[in-house]
Amino acid sequence: MDKKATLKDVAAKSGVSYQTVSKVLNGKANVSAETERAIWQAVEDLDYRTNAAGRNLRTQASRLIGYTWTPAPPWQPNPILDSFLSSTIEAADAAGYHLLLFPTHNTDDETETYRTLARTGRVDGFIVASMDYDDPRVLLLQKLNFPFVAFGRANADWEFPFVDVDGRAGVAAATRHLIEQGHTRLALLAWDGRSRTGDARRNGYFQAMEEAGLSINQDWVIQLPGDVEAGIEATKTLLSLPAPQRPTAVVTVDDQLAIGAMRAAQSAGLLVGPDFGVTGFDDTPGIQHYSPPLTSLRQPLHEIGREIVMRLIALIEGRTIPESIILPPKLVVRGSSLRSQ
Amino acid sequence: MDKKATLKDVAAKSGVSYQTVSKVLNGKANVSAETERAIWQAVEDLDYRTNAAGRNLRTQASRLIGYTWTPAPPWQPNPILDSFLSSTIEAADAAGYHLLLFPTHNTDDETETYRTLARTGRVDGFIVASMDYDDPRVLLLQKLNFPFVAFGRANADWEFPFVDVDGRAGVAAATRHLIEQGHTRLALLAWDGRSRTGDARRNGYFQAMEEAGLSINQDWVIQLPGDVEAGIEATKTLLSLPAPQRPTAVVTVDDQLAIGAMRAAQSAGLLVGPDFGVTGFDDTPGIQHYSPPLTSLRQPLHEIGREIVMRLIALIEGRTIPESIILPPKLVVRGSSLRSQ
Fold first, then answer.
1. Which residues in B lie closer than 8 A to residue A293 (C-beta atoms)?
2. Using alpha carbons only, what angle is made at residue A137 by residues A325 and A79, rounded to the nearest 5 degrees?
3. Class of domain A64-165+301-328
4. Cross-chain residue pair A263–B288, CB shorter than 8 Å
5. What is the DSSP letter of A291?
6. Which of A143, A288, B66, B98 has the fewest other C-beta atoms within 10 Å?
7. Nearest to B159 by CA among B174, B168, B149, B173
8. Does B98 reach chain A within 8 Å, measured CB to CB?
9. Residues A65 and A125 sit within 8 Å (Cβ to Cβ)
10. Tens digit of pLDDT for each residue in A125-141?
11. What is the pLDDT of residues B230-282, one digit of tens each?
12. What is the 3-state secondary structure (H, E, C) of chain B?
């Protein structure tokens, strides 16, 4: 059975009265968690939709946009949260919408909260961030035909509306900048694990090195977790290479790794900038006051927030939405990558 | 006329039909902004309440908590947002509530958004942060008898539920720590303007100096905006004092000022820590990687978030709430305040 399932079918399958099912689907009944689960299971099994257009199971608009993020550890700055949130809530407010925040639960099924919020009509749509390959949230929301716009992309052949930053172009620009400073032996600190964002940033280094005709020593590419301690350890390893193979600069895919690289180089007695070039990614607020100030790539967060919200509201309201876009980050050059200070 | 006003009175006074008034008060009508304003004006003039307990003008719970904050400038880290938000949304979620974010508008009347959200029943209560003396949001929400819990305090004789951090005790601990390091000439960088939080922090310095029997040179107390540049300028001024009056350490009321103090001292050729002690406030994520790492005061943000949400939900649900509390910040000692490294 598919597509033509009715509310009656859902009631029959879940063993709950028609009235109760109707109320639950409209977010108006207080029933046991068990009953609710049975109803939603039946909705899912039967692929039930309240109307042909599949405009979800809601009776009226909530004018709320759902958003969550993975909090940084308390000792680590969140480079984007303040700017991204303030730009999205401003843009949403201008259109009469508000942002609803919900926590990321570390359960077996990370899509559970999305499903509940969508089905109960608590929100009209989602901003989905921290995107990755095979992202189960994309699969779920597409299945529910529920509005969302992603900050980032997933698998190349998946189609959904997104706004992204060109990480490859950013890291390529940082790499070229170090090459222009006279470096020919450049290492890369990139994230371990599979990650579309990480892959893009890493490939920027490969692209710029190839364009410059520079060969890459296999010891120069280190994949690691994105934190300061990992950056310190990896840079120590790089600096212990025999002199002819030792890199004189390191390109990184995030500021935490770059800070680690700076600290390890300084511990080894090198002057960061003149002796050893370092670049980061994110332009984390505050890094302009490090010693030396860190060169980094700044994402246009206000523009990203606005562009995402504009698309999402158009989608919610059934209007045509502009094509997805990939915005360039800006290289902000500071002392950590300059040979002469 | 007061207290006993009816819906009919509101209709008569605003010149709008009984039915329309009823719908607007329940957030269900789309009327012109003018009509809506007339109705709310009448509600306010007549001090109209839907029921004796004054439990707002809502027909049903939204299970949403309203929150806003003043975004930091893009180049300045927000020391608390990530931890505070993640702790509040976790605590709210556990009780079946979500956080609704709204922007701070720089209009003539900063309470306008609070009023609208309260009256339309968009939220069940507010977390009110960035508190200050004579805070108009407190006056409004008390007048509307609308649930809120404050992060911080206002006038000493105002009574409302709050969770606060003991800024005085924190800065006193930092000052004592510098005195224990052997400093006797300690300056203070404090915020200009009136601010309850700023006053408490400033007074911590006065308290600790008095307890230690140290006299304060009038040139040592500088009031300024809380940013790095102001901290640099003020510290330059301190370092230009004649040698016998020149301070050897500076206590500050925020990390941005402390970073400015470190930079100015370093520009003057001083070793921060051994030659010149510096302490901050907020333990901004990332300051542990400055050169030298910055000594600061850490607010217990996760506890603060939980305590605020717990009180607010009890208030919304009509339960007794625990007394307001003042939590101690923790002094985190690092190189910037240590004489021997």
1. none
2. 60
3. alpha beta
4. no
5. S
6. A143
7. B149
8. yes
9. yes
10. 999 999 999 999 999 99
11. 999 999 999 999 999 999 999 999 999 999 999 999 999 999 999 999 999 99
12. CCCCCCHHHHHHHHCCCHHHHHHHHCCCCCCCHHHHHHHHHHHHHHCCCCCCCCCCCCCCCCCEEEECCCCCCCCCCCCCHHHHHHHHHHHHHHCCCEEEECCCCCCCCCCHHHHHHHHCCCCCEEEECCCCCCCHHHHHHHHCCCCEEEECCCCCCCCCCEEEECHHHHHHHHHHHHHHCCCCCEEEEEECCCCHHHHHHHHHHHHHHHHCCCCCCHHHEEEECCCHHHHHHHHHHHHCCCHHHCCCEEEECCHHHHHHHHHHHHHCCCCECCCEEEECCCCCCCHHHCCCCCEEEECCHHHHHHHHHHHHHHHHCCCCCCCCEEECCEEECCHHHCCCC
Tell me the pLDDT of chain B averaged across its residues: 91
Rg (CA), chain A: 24
- Beta strands B98-101 and A98-101 are antiparallel
B284 CB near a chain A CB, below 8 Å? yes
Distance of CA A230 to the CA centre of its chain: 21
Contact between A78 and A64 (Cβ < 8 Å): no
Dihedral of the alpha carbons of B303, B305, B310, B315, in degrees to the nearest 10: 140
What are the φ/ψ torsions at residue A324 (nearest 5 degrees)?
-60, 150
Q: What is the CATH number of domain B167-299+331-337?
A: 3.40.50.2300
B101 touches chain A (CB under 8 A): yes
CB B174 within 8 A of CB B331: yes
* Global pTM value: 0.84
Tokens of A148: 């969302």
Residues in chain B with CB shorter than 8 Å from the CB of A122 are 98
Q: Give residues 2 to 61 of A whose Cβ lies within 8 Å of B.
A: none
Domain positions in chain A: 7-46, 64-165+301-328, 167-299+331-337
Does the structure's ipTM exceed the value 0.85?
no
Question: Architecture of B64-164+301-327 per CATH?
Answer: 3-Layer(aba) Sandwich (3.40)
A64-165+301-328 and A167-299+331-337 share one fold: yes
Alpha-carbon distance A164 to B73, whole Å?
23
Rounded to whole angstroms, how far apart are CA atoms B264 and B279?
Answer: 14
Name every chain B residue with its beta carbon within 8 A of the beta carbon of A290: 289-291
Asked if B78 and A75 come within 8 Å (Cβ–Cβ), the reply is no
CA angle, corner B31, sides to B29 and B35, nearest 5? 125
pLDDT tens string A230-249? 999 999 999 999 999 999 99
Do B260 and B231 contact (CB within 8 A), yes or no?
A: yes
pLDDT confidence of residue B55: 39
Predicted confidence band of residue A18 (pLDDT cuts 50, 70, 90): confident
Buried b (16+ CB within 10 A) or exposed e, A215-242: eeeeebebebebbbebbbebbbebbeee
Give the closest-approach CA distance of B166 to chain A in angstroms: 20
